[in-house]
Every structure is written in structure tokens, then in C-alpha cells.
Design goal:
3 domains; Rossmann fold; globular; iron-sulfur; alpha/beta; seven-stranded mixed β-sheet; six-stranded parallel β-sheet; single chain; binds flavin mononucleotide; Metallo-beta-lactamase, Chain A; Ubiquitin-like (UB roll); metal-binding
Amino acid sequence: MLSFFTSNKKPLVNKVEQVASRLFTSTYKLNVVLRDGKKKEIKYKKGETLYDAATNNKVFAVLGQCGGNMSCTQCQIYTKEEDFGKLYKMRPQEKDALGHANERIEERSRLSCGLILDENADGIEVEMAPLRKRKKKKKRVKKNKKRNLHPQDTEYVPKQFDSTFSSAVTKIVDDIYWAGYVDFAVRDFHGYLTPNGSTYNAYFIKDEKNVAIDSVKYPFADRWLDKIEYLSGGFDKLDYIVCNHAEPDHSSSIQYLMKKAPYAEVVCNEKCKTTLSQHFDTSDWKFRVVNHGESLKLGKRTLSFYNTPLSHWPESMVSYLAAEQILFSMDILGQHYASSKRFDDEVKWDDIEHEAKIYYANILMRLSVPVQKSLKLLGGVPVKMILPSHGQIFRNPENINKMVQNYVNWSKCTPTNKIVIIYDTMWNSTEKMAYHILDGIQKVGGVDVKLMNVRRNHITDIATEVLDCAAIVVGSPVLNEHIMPEIGSALTYLEGLRPQNKLAMAFGSYGWSAGGAVKDINRYLNSIRAKIVRPEVLSQFAPNEDVIEECHKAGEEMAKAVLEHLKK
Ligand SMILES: Cc1cc2nc3c(=O)[nH]c(=O)nc-3n(C[C@H](O)[C@H](O)[C@H](O)COP(=O)(O)O)c2cc1C
């Protein structure tokens, strides 16, 4: 038996949470004024978040869409001014989330999911912050239907198989099959590059009940439907289609299945049901809504469901077969990797590890806190195999260990001895500065450098290098008082992905107004809470000897700061 954490079983809680969990258990209470003006008393134990206490008190009006992951900010509360200062201090994730909130933020704002309750919160009164007005749901569904916004709403037209391979199912163990589609051709996934293609992994369980798990991207619906028909012995023998995640690469073929399989029920959580209805016309679908921890008896086996909100979307969940110790991990441990082989031990480990890193950096880096929560939840689940929604299936215990450890490191952006220099240039002055900074770093030794011109390196690769670097050094010339657009685009992308724990500095060349570009760069660096190690280096037009010397010095200082940082 192999646990999801087979080595280095370090709990993924930060220090604050560890302290909080050790606190006493006597009960206190506070009041929450809900958005409809009603007041609710909430009893809590010291160390609980307000969000968890509200859930335990069944005051669900406090809850937000992201499931308490400090992301959607819908659980924002206003404290009374006199109470704000005495409450448990804000952790960086909470500050960060409030900084990106859609709703109105006040000085006395807190997130219920971030606010740890202690004895100082006893007897206080807080008020739910108003939500930004949203259009009525019913109207929006109607509008979408009328406009036919989604290409996947178009009628499914069966196609011929391209090859016998695309129609093949793979037996994983007795009665459990891979029934997905290998997309060798795809090169772009919502804006980032997939040079090795991808797979849409759908699975099938044969038992007294026939169960399809997830589907494939809609252009490949026909291949998937044929496999499901074959495996279940006819569409009328299909009992369930589990939808772990409503993103269209995994869900958009379900609409065609529902027209063919008269008795099939869609098994998903409540949020997934709503999200599916916002993509497709689900009015005729039969749903079986499952809650966190609930199970479905299939015959010999039982399939259990665990919500893992925001590892990748709010409705994300995983499914688990205890009998075979198989985890259908959805996007967790996914890789965009197309191969004729299905298992991790049939391909080169370095290839899939690298693809998993690209996947993590570009999809999950922003979602590190929810990912850590999911890892913690799954830490107690024994697994022999992990079946993700993209890429190779993991069945080699050593590989499972390595990949889980990678996730632990990536989710903390654990720094390695690497500095990434990201820059743009028009007439090469900024580029020359970048090379001189590189020389300065090299002079100190012991730190790797990646020099990435934003016009020759895709944001996909920049994000991947940034994930585990210790420092980023960003340069741009001044163009019309600002940074160049391509570096702006790269920094906007990184700002969204929120890399943690980075040292940083800015540099760049200008003509007649020094500050514009570095001011923009520093704004981005501050937004991701990078620690700016030293003041920017500027050059009026091409760097002269003084500037070159300063670039060398800056490189040396950055390298020394990184080596110091890694000792901690
Ligand atoms: C279209 C254009 C707009 C520019 N706008 C500014 C500006 O607003 N302020 C400024 O100080 N320099 C401006 N410059 C000058 C450049 O910042 C300067 O030439 C710098 O040295 C270019 O660095 P590079 O060689 O790395 O491209 C501009 C140059 C160009 C070509």
C-alpha cells in the first residue's frame, strides 16, 4: 500500500496554521450581520477561521464560490473600526486576495476564510460586505442559448476514425479502462504552448454499474462515444458519467452522450452542475449531485468523491476507488504530453516531469494555496495509481513519490540557485545591460542564469523558469513613457500567476525621461510581493563605462543576495 505522501510526509500547513491548530478548544461567539440585514450568532473554537466556524454553524450565507481558498473574495466582511486592530493578523494570501477583489474594499475589510478567530474576536459584530451586482442567472443562460455562444453547442457530427489507434481503449487493471483521446496536434492551451500535444483522459469502470469518468474535448466526441458504447455494451447500459471538472476540454462531449444514453446520470458536485449549465443546455440532463466525501456503490466497488476547489476551477473534484486504490486526480499531476503509451514507466521520466512543471507553472502557480489544501486532503488517501486528466498515468511508486514531492516544492515556489533575467530592447542598449548584469552574476559563481528576451521566449517558458528561480531581474527601454508592450504582457501574465518568494531588481535604457519603464516594472514586482534587493540600474541611451560597471555590481549583488537567501 502506498500513500499519496510516501516520503517526506511534511504537513503542508504554514506556521500560523500549525500554531492555530494547537490552540485551546473552548467555545466563543460573535455575530455576523448578513447581506439581508439578519443577524446570526456564530459559535467558534479558538483557531478556527470565521469561514469554517460559519460552515459549522450552518450559516452558509458567509461562504464564497472558491470554497474558502482566499481567491473569490465573496466572503469579505467589514469589521467595526475599533475591532479591526485587535483581530488575528492578516496572512499574505489574504492581503493578496483582498488586493485583487472585485468587491468594494475598506480599511476594516477581512476575508472570512482568512480571519483566524481567537479570544479577541469574542463578542464582536461583523457585517458581510455587499456583493458586486451580477446579472440574473436565468436571463444569462437564456441569452447564451439564443446566441449560441459556444462552438461546442453545434450539432455533433460523427466522423471516421483517423486510425485504429484513436479508437483504441487501454486496460488499466481488470474492469478499468482508459477511454480518452490523444491529441498529437494541439499546440496552444488557453494561451500557453503545448509543444508535445496533449491527451484528454477519459476513463471507464465496468461493474454492476457502468461508469464513464470525464469526457474529451468536443471535436473528438465521436471517438470517445464509440469507446463508451463499446465498453458499456450499448448506450442504454451506461449508468453514470462522472464530471470531475467542468472545463470544456473534459466536459464538452458530455452533451452528445446525454442525447444517446437514456439512463445515464451526470455525477458531479453542486458547483459543477451550475457551471455545466452555464456552458451547455443541461435542461434534459439527469444529475446526481454528490457532496464532499460521499460515495457511490457500483457493485463490487465504491467510488468516492472529494472536492478540491480551485485545483483548477472552483468546482474541481477528484474521484477515488478504494478497492484498487486508484485516484482519478483530474488536473492535479496533469501534463500536456501526447504519446502512444499510457503509463509513466513507458516513456522518458524527464520528459513528463518537465511537462508537469510547465503545466504547474502556467495553470496552477497562482493556485498554490488550494493545491496545498488538496495535497493535504489527499495525503491520507492510499494510492497505487494516479489517473490524471492530461498526460501519462502514474503507476510507478517511485514516480508518484517524485511527482508529489515536486508539487510540494512548486506549490511553495521553493527557490533554486537560479536568476532569470527577463528583458526587451529596441536598439540593444537594454540588452547590453542584461549581458553585463549576467557577467556580474557569473563573477560571483554558484548561481545559474537564464537570459530571456521576451520576444524570443514565449511566456509559457518564462513562467516555467520563474516558478523555481530565486530572483527575477527585469529590464525594459522607455517607450512613450512606459515599458515595451511585450514585456508588459509577460509581466501581466506573471502578475496573474503570482510567483511567490522572489528577489528582484529592475533596469533599462531611456532617452530623455528616466523613470517611466522602471516605475512600471517596480509596480509589477511590488504586486507579486517580490523583495526588491537593490535600486534599479538606468542608462541614458547606450550604456557607458559607469553604467557597465554598475551593471556588474548589480549582478554581483543579486548573486550574493540569492546565495544568502538560499541559506535560510
Ligand atoms: C518610438 C520610441 C519612443 C520612445 N519614447 C521614449 C520616451 O517616452 N521616453 C524616453 O526617455 N525615451 C524614449 N525613447 C528612447 C528609448 O528609450 C531609447 O532609445 C533607449 O535607449 C532604447 O533602449 P534599447 O536600445 O534597449 O531599445 C523612445 C524611443 C522610440 C524609438
